[in-house]
Amino acid sequence: MMQDEPALSLPSAVVRKQIWSKAELLDLISRSAGATMAVIDRSLVMIYVNEEYARWFGTVPERLVGKTLVDVYGEQDCARFMPFVERVLNGERVQYQRMLRTPYGFDEWRTICLTPWHNSQGAIDGFITTALDVHELQVTMNALRVANQRLSSHMENSPLAVLEMDHKLQLLHCSQRAVQLMGWLHVAGLEGRLLTDLLDPTSMDDSLQLALSRLQAGEESQNRAETSFVRADGTEVHCEWFNSALTDEDGKVSSIMALVQDVSAKIQIARQQHYLANHDSLTGLLNRAAFQGRLEQSLLQARHTQGAVALLFIDLDGFKRVNDAEGHRAGDEVLRIVAQRLASTVRVGDTLARLGGDEFLVLLDQEVTRDVTDVIGHRIIEALNQPMAVDGRDLSIGASIGVAMSPPMDVDIDALMNRADQAMYAAKRAGKGRLHYAQAVS
To answer: What is the pLDDT of residues 224-241, one digit of tens each?
Structure first.
């Protein structure tokens, strides 16, 4: 027959815990909680304080029990927290933060918690107050608040538009500059809306869509894109987007930020520079360099498609006489009128240029035939033979035109221009005001 097994023995700590009285447990909690504790009755008399509470006043609990809050804190300090006391005595649990001077002479933040003390009948006999050290947390929160305010200020004052979105491109925040740049009415109502819904469809081109989608997919952490659109007021806006993605600890994209720069002025300047580099400043027609580039492209295209190109070299008749007699200002006005009349005689798609002085060029590279060239050439001669009103006077000039066509000529642009130039001089020798064709060399 087996002997009874010995009973399991419990740890001594467990045994002690079972025999502790409520008073001992209360004393243990109040001494070891690391917080100041006090019980105050309705007449604001302290009926219990723990050692931590008394230490703040440089004394022991026995010297504080029986004193009122006014005795301990003074009337001025009591006036600051009496509104909270009134609330807790009305049954509300109150929590607030205040700066307190520690026993060591430092000012630190504490969270004060006031809890109503109900008797067995449910009436409020007073309240319990505790204070926890939250100084480091409060300092950190204050620093974070200041940093956020500083960042927000930078965002609002930045010349760049700032857009913050979640991983779905729903707007979380946008600066006032963004509202102005995009032509939105106001900030209110924008939060939570998709960027793709807010932007004009013409501005959500492939460049921006691809850049944002690559950030969303985690393929890139930052990129840039360029867009352009027309606002409701008709203003053409060009933007450069600098985009970046923020990822969480799992590597997933949590938000996307876009800094958008208005580069409309830069684009406009670049356009003006390009225009000036390719156009004659007096007449607005293409200059020699730009025209030669266009002619070269037309010749290559004609050879590829078995098409044709006609080059009309125009020299004004009698312009030197008008310029010498009337002055350079009148001469410049005549050249501007010539450019306008040339534009009115050619077809849409034909190319005009001022070669220099009183020499002009016309390039025909669409549906080019001898009949078409004849019609346009004689139309130009007739238009330039009409009097030109300059400073109240009618001035008369004319034009001689040399034409070189490819085919039949299979030459480069310099040779084609030289043949058209020679044909123009042949027209002048034949009596001016004529159209003369260059002959292909056999």
So the answer is: 998 888 877 778 889 898
Q: Residue 6: its pLDDT value, please? A: 45
Full strand arrangement of the beta sheet holding 351-356: 351-356, 359-364, 309-317, 398-406, 435-437
CA proximity to 283, closest of 219, 354, 234: 354
Residue with tokens 């390009």: 274
Average pLDDT, whole number, for the chain? 84
State the pTM of this model.
0.57
Find which of 73-82, 161-170, 188-197, 393-402 is predicted with most confidence, using mean pLDDT.
Answer: 393-402
Return the pLDDT at 153.
58
Three-class SS of residue 29?
helix
Partners of 257 in the β-ladder? 164, 244
Return d(Cα 225, Cα 241) in angstroms, integer.
Answer: 5
| Nearest Cα residue to 263 out of 211, 213, 224 | 224
Residue 145 scores a pLDDT above 70: no
47 phi/psi in degrees, rounded to 5:
-110, -10
Give tens-digit pLDDT for 87-122.
999 999 998 877 766 555 667 777 888 999 898 898
Q: Is 287 helix (H, G, I), strand (E, B) or coil?
A: coil
Q: Cβ distance 331 to 323 under 8 Å?
A: yes
Q: How far apart are CA 441 and CA 308, in angstroms?
A: 17
Q: What number of CA atoms fall less than 13 Å from residue 36's CA on the CB side? A: 20
CA distance 358 to 354: 8
- Rounded to whole angstroms, the Cα distance separating 259 from 282 reads 41
Alpha-carbon gap, residue 139 to 143, rounded angstroms: 6
pLDDT at 137 over 60: no
Beta bridge partners of 165: 171, 256
* Closest to 199 (Cα-Cα) out of 218, 166, 219, 174: 174
**Residue 51's pLDDT band (boundaries 50, 70, 90)?**
confident
Are 332 and 423 spatial neighbours (Cβ–Cβ below 8 Å)? no
Q: And the tokens for 416?
A: 């084609």
Identify the CA nearest to 36 among candidates 134, 116, 139: 134
Contact 376, 362 (CB under 8 A): yes
Parallel, antiparallel, or unpaired for β 309-317 and 253-262? unpaired
The torsion angles phi and psi of 284, rounded to 5 degrees, stand at: 80, 0
Q: How far apart are CA 291 and CA 287, in angstroms?
A: 6
> For the stretch 332-342, what's the b/e string if a residue is b when 16 or more beta carbons lie within 10 angstroms of its beta carbon?
ebbbbbbbebb
Strand pairing class (398-406; 309-317):
antiparallel
Average pLDDT over residues 58-62: 90
